[in-house]
Design brief:
This protein is α/β, with parallel strands linked by helices and 212 residues long. It contains 10 helices and 6 strands.
Length: 212
């Protein structure tokens, strides 16, 4: 694997899906496909051999399903972060995947550019949920779901304002006098509360809000 690039292991039982994602990632200079797996057992084997940065994981896999893979992934490659990409909209699956250690959850109807941004975001240490998945988790919590700008704390609004100006996490941390880890936590919370999949979408919402 090439130094400086995000290595991705693609796990899906449909060859056409794996090929499509592989072609999509191949045009981005900061990414490379480390390997492809068609069942859960193969995912774990390749994760142990290749130690990819990001595992792009479908939940509906033969032999071992995606949730089982998530539970055992740290045994094979502790540093690999898993981004679930699935067509399964079952609320129980969403909850189980997140509880098992998924760093992100997206549905297969995601825009290709948003998928690429999501891989980068998960690689950078963020937790990322598709709006639908965030709604599922809020519903399961039994608490009223407060969404949108009104749900943001004062600090989260500050983080969002700087994010909208194109600041990196490191620059935001320096500007606010907090740690980069704290900024990552705030960014993840902002994305979940706004119901957006990545920083770009959050920035767009912030700009629109300012224009009102």
């Amino acid at each position: 694997m090439t130094a400086g690039r995000i290595s991705v292991l693609i796990a899906d039982d449909h060859p056409v899906v794996r090929q499509g994602i592989s072609v999509l990632l191949s045009v981005h200079e900061d990414m490379e496909v480390a390997g492809e797996a068609s069942d859960g057992a193969e995912v774990l084997r390749l994760a142990g051999e290749l130690r990819p940065d990001v595992l792009l994981l479908d939940l509906k896999l033969p032999v071992l399903d995606g949730v089982a893979v998530l539970g055992r992934l740290p045994e094979f490659s502790a540093a690999t972060r898993a981004l679930v990409l699935t067509s399964a909209a079952d609320s129980e699956l969403v909850a189980r995947a997140l509880a098992a250690g998924a760093a992100g959850f997206l549905y297969k109807d995601v825009d290709p550019d948003a998928l690429v941004r999501a891989i980068r975001s998960v690689h950078d240490g963020h937790t990322l949920l598709a709006p639908g998945a965030a709604a599922v988790m809020a519903a399961r919590s039994g608490r009223p779901q407060v969404r949108g700008m009104a749900a943001l704390t004062g600090r989260e609004r500050e983080v969002l304002a700087l994010l909208a100006q194109g600041y990196s996490n490191r620059e935001i941390a320096r500007s606010l006098g907090v740690s980069e880890k704290t900024v990552k936590t705030h960014v993840s919370s902002v994305l979940a509360k706004l119901g957006v999949a990545d920083r770009t979408q959050a920035a767009v919402l912030a700009v629109r809000q300012q224009g009102r």
